[in-house]
Amino acid sequence: MASAWKYDVNANLKSGSESTEDEAGVSSDIQLKGDVGAMANFVAETLTFGRDTKDETKLSYSKKIGEGLLSSSTLGYWTMSEDGKTISMAAWDNKAGKEKAPVNYTIVELTDDKLVLMKEGEDTKKIYKKK
Q: Where is the Lipocalin-like domain (predicted)?
């Protein structure tokens, strides 16, 4: 987990088209390439997990959307369940000076170069590749 993970736009499109094919019988293979693919990757989310630099006993994360001057970042803390199947991410609220309520994600798949998360209460998977 202690890595940077980039949202894989094309893998998520493929996953969505496969579920549409299963449900509706409509087949498609959408791939974003060229300038459109570059733009989609430019604004794609990057998750970075690690230890907090100020308090080594805490695990922190950064969620960054976009790159360069046009990016926006969210910082927070994360924990993993004892069985290693769920992570809870609590974003830091700068205005309130405290953590927001945690959001739970099920780890559907974790390999050396792929992370698949599913937000609690949702059916859509988010596929990330190691950055």
A: 41-117
Per the structure block, which two tokens stand in for 66? 């976009």
Residue 12 confidence (pLDDT):
84
CATH number of 48's domain? 2.40.128
Closest CA to 73 of 94, 88, 57: 94
State which amino acid sits at residue 51.
Answer: R
Task: Determine phi and psi for 22, rounding to 5 degrees.
Answer: -65, -40
Instruction: Quote the pLDDT of residue 91.
Output: 95
What residue numbers bound the domain in which 42 lies?
4-130
CB distance 116 to 105 below 8 Å? no
Which two tokens mark 90? 């609590």
Give tens-digit pLDDT for 99-120: 999 999 999 999 999 999 999 9
